[in-house]
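Re: that chain you flagged

S.,

Sorry for the slow reply, it's been a week of failed gels. I finally had a moment to sit down with the sequence you sent. For the record, here it is as I used it:
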Amino acid sequence: MRTANNNFTVEGIVTKYRNYVKEHCPKSAESSEWQDKDGQWHSKEYGTPINDAADEQLLITLYKKIKEHDADERVLSSLKKFADDYYRDALTADEFAFLCNHFSEVVSYEFSDRKWVGTSSGYSKPIPERLKWVKEMIKPVHGSSIFIADSGIGDIASLYEHCSVYGYSGFSGQGEYNNVAWALGQIRMCSAKIESHIKPWWNEEEDGILPLPNNGTMDFVIYGSMQYSEYNGLEALYNLLKPKGRMLLFLQKHEVLRDSSYRAFFKRIIAESSVEGIVSIIEDWWGQNNEAIWIVIDKSNNKDVRIVDKKGNVISVPSNQLDADILWPSYYLTNRPQIGIPLSELVYSSSYSDDYKEFKKVFHGKYEFENHNGIERMVLPDEILKMSIATSSDLSPEYKDANLCVKQLHKVSDTVFDQYRGQIRLIKNKCVLVVGNQSSEKKMGIGYVPVVPKEGMARYAGWACLFPKEGIDVRYVAAILLMPAVCDQILSICDTVSSWNLPLILDKIIVPNHTNEERLSFLAEANYDAMLSSQKEMEKAFDEKLALKKAEYINEVRMRKHDMRPHMKQLNSAKNLMQYYVENMATTENVQDHLKQQLFRFQDALGHLSDIIAHLSDEEEFGEPERFPIIKHLQELVSEYIRKGYSISFHYNEDDVRKFLMSKVLQWMDNPVEFGQKDENGDYVFPLHWSYTFISPLDFDRMVQNIIENAHKHGFTDSTRTDYEIWINLTIDEKREMYQVDFVNNGTPLPDGMSKARYGIKGEKAGLTGGTGSGGYIVKSIVTHYGGDYDVICKDGITTIRIYLPIATI
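Prediction finished late last night. Pasting the structure tokens below so you have them in one place:
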């Protein structure tokens, strides 16, 4: 962007103006205070600019200068505050004149650079994946008319030179931002010489009804191109199209599956054979992958519809075979039985909203809250707090593990449910609970309740709950749902199964049409297979455990044999000496003295042998596992060791832990509730005291004690050193979905070759100071017993014992 007459560039002058504003704009000290290493507080150095709107200031000032009397008064009014804040001393007269002479280049650079756009929802940019599809599918000719339901700051409208662009900017409820976004878009259209008929939503809205162009006047209509879109008059937009017009429709999954306001529109476009294609797209939605669809509508008659799922699989479906209730691509790419009955003939289910109404009845519409450890939680009656409630880990993808035995369940009073009490619903009848996620290895989890206990039972509101109809065994329903053909059908529509989507599609899921006798036979076979499967697993687990124990015992016997050898030599030597004394000593007195000495050696050797043999018969025992607050407990343990004089510290990355745990909660919940704690931006965050694993507290303490005491006893052996230290670092291993706890020390390293395998062998000693050789074995036994893992890392004189423990989620 350099001219031939001087050294000015658009980029250089715009950057100069930005820097000037950043330097001279008044700063806010409150939001940017910081503390240095000496404890000194600072604020002036890093204050946040109160009004850092340099680019808006520059654009409106240039627009006013160039357009003069032809400037749109609504644009000037919407951007007046930016024009008033313009820094006239920032640029020389020549620099300002250069920008005026290259106005279109300035606007093009500003909107392509985008360093200033996106600071507010009113300036929202199109989702990249949607913008890509718009560019590919909308290719108008000169003079075409295009309607954009949500044009924002004109990212899509600016693509179409020599066309007439209509539509609205922003969306309802954004007030001033809509006017600002619209005005910036108008400046953009003006510089590109595009005929713009785009209007600001906020100024044009009357009673929620937006005036539209005349029907049959648009060549193209685009809906849902921005991150938000509230214009749901799809039929009205469809009516804008000319006889051969084309419409791009971007929708979220929940809109396709449950929004009844779209149903009539879907039926119409299917009846008129206007659907050309339906495509699943994965898009970046506020930093998370989100699955949506776009529907290509062409008023020309389409006999076949091209359907593409998120994996890129393609199929052509006759337009008359589309289902207006489910325009979801994977549904059409999944094989469905041609013979059978709808699942709705076996079960019924209340909707999420009906469950909520029932919830309000139980509590008579009164909600009380209490502050518990700084968190607001709903007050529930004692009889509900005593109820059993299933967690996702209690549901299973296999029928043999689907029985929700109350003994294995948690209680509603468990602290992990504190912030979910408003999401708890009661179970009054036998039922099947269903959760599922197509992207998860677990796929669909099932849990059935054959009998509701007298004290009652509870469930999470987001889970689908199916009640068998009269004469249908609840176990039969569970077994049917876990059939691969049925499971695939459900996940092809729901993807993530929940209480708001599964009840809507019960009549779309085809299951076998069994007679009563066939149901009994099917259930009997399922129970028999479950019994055989459980038996085989038990036998396999037993054989594996037996083989492992055998190998460990052989290794230990081999090591103990080595330990016994010197004591056996000692016994043999004492025996030979005593025999020599008896045969060769002249006096009884001399024989007695020497025999006493050898008897002492005998006693010492026999004592050592007894200890070794007793150690061979030791068996590892474990406590009862419970939900265990790992971060909180490690903090307490470290404090105790510090009080005892140990040089030890505990560290963890709070942001990483919160982010991962929060992502798992959001993945599990369809309607996340308030978590009770907010960050500096006002967003709810995952309280760290919810960082749980399942383990016996005594076993956890025993494991930590073994690691720390062994490091202290066998590693800190040089009395001249004063820099010995133990560091405990907790992170999240996202691939394993486990807590990773590193116990690091700078003492004498473990002997060469002390690998993970050797560390876990019972009887393996770590060097000359080694004791019984059971420390590493105890650590290994505990972590593997509770589903974790371990590792041993020795590098550059630093020893790390790494422990992995599963994360306990709700």
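What I noticed first: The mean pLDDT is 80.

Talk soon,
D.
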